[in-house]
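ok so dumb question maybe but i'm new to this and my supervisor (M.) told me to 'just get the structure for Metalloendopeptidase' and walked off. so i did the thing. is this what she meant?? sequence i used:
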Amino acid sequence: MWDGGIIPYLVDTAFDSEMEPYLRDAILQVKQLTCVKFVPYVSQEYYIYIKSSDQFAYAPVGKPSKPGKSEVNIPKNYKGALVMHLILHVVGLVHEDTRPDSRYHLVYYRENIKPGI
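this is what came out, is it supposed to look like this??
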């Protein structure tokens, strides 16, 4: 977990300007609804580096194990909840179905799963 709930971040200078409002909104919502704070990177030992991606989405879960930057890739077509999803991974949240104890606590209703997923 991040020390003191503080997450230093740096946004790539080439980050897609059309996506900036979605990123700002996700960070603001986390700040308003949790005890986690995102602060601009200055020279902190651990930080996240946020960049646009043409290819894939990726965000590490929680604070990385090694010092330095940890990259977050946000695809250019991601908006709203999808950006928030990646930011929440950075905070430390995981998908419920990947928890080791998920088979004891989750019920899957196959009839609610769309074909092809």
